[in-house]
Amino acid sequence: MQKSVRWIERLPVARDRPVFGMAIMLAIVAAAWLLRDLADPFLPPGFPYVTFFPAVIVSSFLFGVRIGAVSALLCGLLAWYCFIPPTGFKLTTGAAFALAFYVFVVATDLVLVHWMQVANRQLAAEREVSRSLADTRELLFRELQHRVSNNLQVAAALLTMQRRELADAGERSALDEAAARLALIGRISRQLYDASGVAQPLVPFLSELGLSVIEAAGRHDVTITASGDERLRLVPDAAVPVALIVAEAVANALEHGFADGTGGRLAIAVEQDPGRGLCITVHDDGHGLPADFDLDSSTSLGLRIATTLARGQGGRFHLERCQGTRATLILPPGLSADGAATEQRGGPGDPLADSGPHLLG
């Protein structure tokens, strides 16, 4: 359908080749005259223009109003000479009435075709302007994302430089963590959004995020997998906090679950429960939590950040022993597609029409 519309917008054709247009128009007029002559024995009196009207419309539609006007003149003369009694360019009252009717009809056709082609040209020009604006918007969006990410990287680098001036090991560690988090936010902002404003699919993004955290930690002995509905997307306001929480959970597993340098496995799972909300778990098969571990009284800055970010989204974050350690983030159902969906579900044949809701931006 779109291709046919674009083809119509290119009319009239052969604007730079008038001779070609005239030749095709003459062929159309000749075909109309031949068809009318062949049909003459089968037509009742009073239909001299029955094949000439379509010839005029087609000619003007394809090659413009000027060539269409020439075809209208030729068709009118042929009809007057051959099919309006008395034939042979004899002007009677009946012939004059028939010619006046013909002039009125073809003039109306030519005006309508001309208006349509002018509207098509304006539509094509507006579409080109819209396309140019869309390209400019995408370019500006990517430039903004690039600059924001670069500024975060610069801030992280400044913190790293400031670290060199500190002698206290605790202070140096704090600046290292702050620089790492700023760099992580920069990477997240690059990956989460595109120019249309729609967030990336959640499961593939979390998989890449986990790999980035593992690579940044220099741990090549830890593997990670991510599973869940790959159509799930988060609303934009929740995307960065959730990514930071998952990154903190992965970093915590690397630091404590695999603290002695032994390798292991990490598994990220994303589930959507209509009653419970969105549930994201990060499960490692490491050493597990100490027996007296209490998240509320933990002094870990990363865990406090994760807990605070989860509460800010109306959810909760907790850790538990489960053949290792399992970090769980639960977000409320209010972030589901029922409240902020940007994709429409189809009918029974649409794969998005199943029971699994989406957290869409």
Automatic annotation (TrEMBL):
SMART domains per the UniProt record, alphabetical: HATPase_c
Catalytic reactions on record: ATP + protein L-histidine = ADP + protein N-phospho-L-histidine
UniProt-listed PROSITE patterns: HIS_KIN
Uppermost EC category: transferase
Broad class of where this protein is predominantly found: membrane
Ranges for region Disordered: 333-361
Any Gene Ontology biological process: phosphorelay signal transduction system
One Pfam family it belongs to: HisKA_2
Membrane topology value: Multi-pass membrane protein
Keywords, alphabetical: ATP-binding, Kinase, Membrane, Nucleotide-binding, Phosphoprotein, Transferase, Transmembrane, Transmembrane helix, Two-component regulatory system
GO cellular component, one term: membrane
TM segment ranges: 20-36, 56-83, 95-116
InterPro entries the record matches: HATPase_C_sf, HATPase_dom, His_kinase_dom, KdpD_sf, KdpD_TM, Sig_transdc_His_kin_sub2_dim/P
Transferase among keywords: yes
EC numbers on record: 2.7.13.3
Places the protein is found: Membrane
Span of domain Histidine kinase: 143-335
Superkingdom of source: Bacteria
GO molecular function terms listed in the Swiss-Prot or TrEMBL record: ATP binding; protein histidine kinase activity
Matching PANTHER family: ETHYLENE RESPONSE SENSOR PROTEIN (PTHR41523:SF8), TWO-COMPONENT SYSTEM SENSOR PROTEIN (PTHR41523)
Protein name (database record): histidine kinase
